[in-house]
Amino acid sequence: MARGGGIRPRGRTYRYDDRGATAAEAGIQLGADVRGQQAVELAGADEARRIDFASTATGEDAGPPRGTPVEGVILTGLDSAGTAFAIRVDAARGELPDADLGRIVDSVEVH
């Protein structure tokens, strides 16, 4: 029975919360080129975004040598508990085929 003569709510309503995107963009090195952002569907996530970027390697953390062009994506959003998450995948330009990157993105499950 609807309360107060109103309509009974069905399902859940979601509103994109940019906390995840803000955290992800903070994870991209200063001076990187953000090439795009789009909504994506990830298993287990209420909402998610894909942020594509390009930068140059810093030469740290077992990455490519300093100055190497790097391309990557960050998958970010909120899990069903409202906790922000970010997953970063990057590689030296040309080293990770688009098909492989697509399979990585498609394999992501948020728990």
How do the strands and helices of this protein lay out in sequence?
Elements: H1 19-26, E1 33-40, E2 45-56, E3 69-79, E4 84-92, H2 98-107
Antiparallel strand pairs: 1-2, 2-3, 3-4
- Given as residue ranges, the uncertain stretches (5+ residues, pLDDT < 50) are 1-16
Summarize the amount of helix as a percent range: 10-25%
Number of helices: 2
Identify the quaternary structure here: single chain
Region (Disordered): 50-70
Question: Summary?
Answer:
The protein is of the alpha+beta class and 111 residues long. 16% of the residues lie in helices and 36% in strands.
Provide a descriptive summary of the structure in words.
Strands 1-2-3-4 form a four-stranded antiparallel beta sheet, covered by helices on one side. It is elongated, with a radius of gyration of 18 Å. 16% of the residues lie in helices and 36% in strands. It has one domain. The chain is α+β, with helices and mostly antiparallel strands and 111 residues long.
Relevant terms:
16% helix; 111 residues; alpha+beta
